[in-house]
Structures
1.
Amino acid sequence: MSQKLVEAMAELDEDRVLEEIKALKSQNVAPLDIIASLQEGMGIVGKRFEEKEYFLSELIMSAEIFNEASQLLGGMGGAGTASKYGTFVMGTIYDDIHDIGKNIVTTVMSSNGFNVIDLGVDVPTAKYVEAIKKYKPKVIGISCLLTTAFDNIKECIQTLEKEGLRKDIKILIGGGPVDEATCKYVGADHVCKNAQETVEYSKKYMGV
Amino acid sequence: MKTGQELYNEHLNRIKTAVAMKKTDRTPVMLHAGAFCVRYAGGKLSDLVKNLEYGQELVLKGLQAMGDIDCVVGTAEYPPIMGASYLAHVKVPGRELPDDMQWQIDERGVMTEEDYDTVIDKGWDYFFTDVCKNRLDNVLDEMQYVGKFAAKAAKMYEDAGIVILPPVMTGLPFSAFCGGRTIPKFMRDLHRIPDKVQAAIDAAMVSRVESLRQQIRTVNPYSVFIGGGRGAGDFLSIKAFERFVWPYFKKLVEVMVEEGANAYLHLDLSWDRFLNYFLELPKGRCIFHPDSTTDIFKAKEVLQGHMCFMGDVSPSLLTLYTPDDVYEYSKRLVDEFSPIGFIMAAGCCVPANAKPENVKAMLAAAFDN
């Protein structure tokens, strides 16, 4: 573990992160070890977010730095099996094209050690079904910004139940108008108010 | 039977009393509900796009069917121009979307990092015109189309006795840059090139302030709309909020008041962390309208006696709950806020798929009390 890299990541010092990665690469440190340091730094960022020392701006910035850093290592694939915590599938439900919240969550989840399958926006139920069968995630996320899409989430979750795909996964929902009543209405497991809550809920559920 | 003018005066006086933080004869209501009203009047959302005048007639018909509505947020809800102030495209029903689907802002990141320099060197007006012409499918044509209809639409509302609460709108450069850059890139800009972002905000403010003054002098509005959602919530630290958002929000409100207008504060996202800042705004000249994400009861503790409140029946209450649930919450709002200046409204706007009986329950709580 490179303490310098961990600290630079936690302090959101982009230049220092990139310099340190280049230095570690020149020392032939394994990409997976470098990623581990970055993820350790991301863990500190998440903690500071929970303690209200950092806010979404810093959370997004950290994920952006992480992405850039992992590109230096040949992408997450190039770094080997960098995902420690299993697979997370997410999309914005059909009839809704908003991607801001979804993108923040997928980026932050990815930089916190999850293998993220981003289904995009306006995602039909069939695509969720297909992704769950293929990737076998433990947690999925459904985003929406429109109240007119509540019924679509409900239909999607009911279909997952009918297909026998519901019992082994947790379904998280999020987005501007989504609250506890929405969660109950659509039959989801939990409402996430922000990206970090998605990270913490998923880690807890996966026993990390 | 009251004439339209008599009704208009009655509504405006009721709103003025609420803004002065005094108890009204009955709780005034604001219905910001274009999409909902079109559907309630038997139309489709694409009617707002295909024929501006017909769409507006449907909105008005829906409003009047809901009862004695005192005011609305604006006229001519024309979806194709709704992304422009955020430097964003918008997908609208009847064009990119099916006929009766809700329009949606489509942020594609049309603003580059170099554009901050353009704003600094050439000003906001030059930059905005260029973006509209060359990167937003020449939305200026659509804006001119709406502009030509604005006076007629205003007359339609006035004849119906409904006050257009803020016929003039302004907003923060922060929101425009955030939409233009997209949130991830903009948040990164705030960390990597904060001085440049602030210089561009300062440059954009020059024409914003001048334009605001000119509009107020031309239209003589009762109040002016100002939003700023992405400056709130959990997006920014207090330090960043105090640097990039609040001074500009405060400045624009001060300009409104200097020019004789009041400020309609349209507050999306949670402002819980920032409530004390609103005490810096001119007393008795603002309407605090949270979208149901801010704790309005906490806001009351802080801002009671400083400004009037509006709101804040949530989208989920209006779409998922029963009329009794809605009435109970709305009645609580009336009981707690009406004695200190209150206008009943949905949080942000009434969703297109709100249950009509729930909207009526919200209004009944105001009409009965």
2.
Amino acid sequence: MAKTILIVDDSASMRQLVRISLASAGHTIIEACDGQDALAKLTGQKVNLIISDVNMPKLDGIGLVKALKARAEYRFTPIMMLTTESEQSKKAEGQAAGAKAWMVKPFQPQQLLAAVEKLVG
Amino acid sequence: MASLTLRPSAADTPACLCLAGDLTIFEARDTHAALLELLAENPGPWALDLSALGELDSAGLQLLLALGKQLGGANTPLQVLAVSSEAAALIELLRPTGLLLDLQSVCAG
Amino acid sequence: MLDAEQWQQLLQGFLEEANDLLREAEDCLLVLERSPTDSEAINALFRSVHTLKGSAGIFSLEPLVALAHHLENRLMQVRDGECALDDALTSLMLQCMDELNVMVRSIDPHTATLAPHTPRQAELLAALEAFTSSAPHAAQGPAVWQLALRLDAELLRNGFDPCAFIRYLARLGDILAVDTLTDALPALEQMDPEQCYLGFDITLSTEASRETLEEVFSLADGFYHLTLTCQTAPDDAPATASLRPATQTLAPTPASDEPRVVHTASSLVKVAAHKLDELINLVGELVISTAGAHMQAMQTGDSECIERVQAVHQHVEQIRERALKLRMVEIGETFNRFHRVVRDVSLTLNKQIQLHLHGGDTELDKTLTDRIADPLIHLVRNAIDHGIESAEERLAVGKPAQGNLSLSAGHDSGMIVLEIQDDGRGLNTARIREKAIARGMLDADSLLPDSDIHMLIFEAGFSTAEQVSNLSGRGVGMDVVRSAIDELRGTIEIESEPGKGCIFRIRLPLTLAIIDGFLVGAGADRFVIPLDMVTECMEAPATINGPLNLRGKPLPCIDLTTHFALGVPTTSRRNIVVVSQARQQVGLIVDRLLGELQTVIKPLGQLFRHLNGISGSTILGSGQVALILDIASLFRDLQQRNDTKHRPSAAIPNLSGEQTCNGSAI
């Protein structure tokens, strides 16, 4: 079933990859270029999944997770963090903040699709 | 939260609980509270009308199963009179013993 | 959403990648046919198909994904030693590759759409399916797994929905039963509706491996406990036991193979061909403008300036060389396709043929490799069809039953030489002559040397096939081969020995973009002659009557001034440039010799595309336009005039013809 998915990443090409991969499966994609932008774009509408980069300007992924957990309408929204091998140390911090699903970049589009299906399919 | 309406029993049919809207982890807490209030007024038996139900997830299903257990005990399944396609898909997949899907009526949309 | 241009770029990338992947897959399959246990090839094949499937998924190319998926499944069994790769399966897989190729080609490049499933695809899918059931080692059916899934109380609050995971499991196989465990569910009043009390026992029938099943839940790491037991395994053996030995034998290969592949991938940059073309075009302009600057500097006589310009010139030279090398690819990739061609053709004709490839590392311009592939395929088909005899025929004349066909590539004096050699019966000169006479291409009494008769097979509408076989009935004649090679500024020659075999030799320029030329003047115009064809220059005698005698051999001449109707010669002291091609020589009479130059070929506009004798143009440093002579077509002109004039009197075959062409026709 088509879901609404928010992708937060400061890299336009990464957003593009995610968008193409997921749009092909019929999902609706909302894009934000950092945590602040994401919070601004989340204005109460239903979002089934949030996919976020960790390292971003203004408000990073972990800050975003903390902010989301404090907002009732998004407190249970599944969040999947995209991370690079070198950011593994951030994982514990992110999980403590409430982001439990992690995916290591780079990934194949079908891996991403599979992950989305497992989380919200 | 999902809106709850309890249609009182008529003749020898049980009261019918209509659930409308989504029933997910987001609505679970409020719906749970509303159910407890309704139960205080009408202890059952109930049947379920899920034909207006939107999204249903594990938390929502778990709540329905807990309701069934409450109403009929562990061995009496809660009868589902009508079901929306989305809810039907999940119930079909998991076939929980606590819910009895009347297949004849499972054509509501 | 993606804008149209980005989408186009992605799709373009996919289409290119898909072609590469399919070619690679086909190569692997052919390697496997010869050495079925080559685990490296199996792995590479599997990877190609897998990657193709993945990329096709992005564009929702359902039929492509479906076929690739089934192919991949079969390959997985081959890889895991559960299914033997025999001839029948190889053939089937090659057919699937063909179909995948067809599908990739039929993808609409604008909408990224593909026609829905065709009967052909259904047939292949069914055949792939059937293969599993009939093959003795392919008894790998789905296994039945028992999954005991216990969940953490905090699972739901963390955004995980176990139902979503189970739905995903349903995609991997058939869920035979789910037991939703509610034992831990407290009474309604006591329950925390956001806490997870449920558990699931799932019975799943699937072909997926244990790893795949474990992977399904891994995203919710730390929030579940999964116990996996396999209830039935194929061949009544525990799945783990049947899979492990196979994986172990293959294990070392991926380990040693993977890093290398990764390395190659990361050290390559894919660039769109048109970008390279733009670069090379600009480099060409740079070469020209440097020549202009050099000329100007020489005129000023400022030695400082000349020195600087020369330094620039040197660097431009280096850039030019490097830029041209960017377009160079090894011909090996093109050659490898011939394993398939030879395999198919020899199967169809029931001939045993061994293909030998030499010089696959020879580099040539990408455009050339692309455009020479079809003519080569035609020549190879022709060699197998007409050249190489059947096994009985071969044995009868004392040859080994297996025919040999060799393809080789190499460099020769600035040209690429490609040879297609077979050890068959050679060209049947008498028969070609007969056919040519019957078709009115040749006079019955003409005395052409054998080599010239052989060249007649390249004339339009000529065919020597005793009967139109399956292969030659394609409506493509050797004349198409000839014109394709002409277009590439190449030449073709035949060396045939009756009973021993035949060699087709193709010569091609290294690149189509730049030419080393010899600049000459005729009238007020400038012409460029490809330098590698120039053998010598000499002063022309005051009057030319008949062919010249060049060291005892007759030399036919073409006067460029008259040939192109450029008016009267501007000088009385004229020169002859002797050009040669495939052992033929001709003298070009010109007004002035202006020396060597290297120049960029500008294709002729549409209007002049069919201009005879001119293959392109270039702009000189001075800004003047020079025309590049198409020597091959001048030779053909000469030949034709020769033939027409030649027929009535066959007395002195070589000389009289040339006399005519020199005296009047040209």
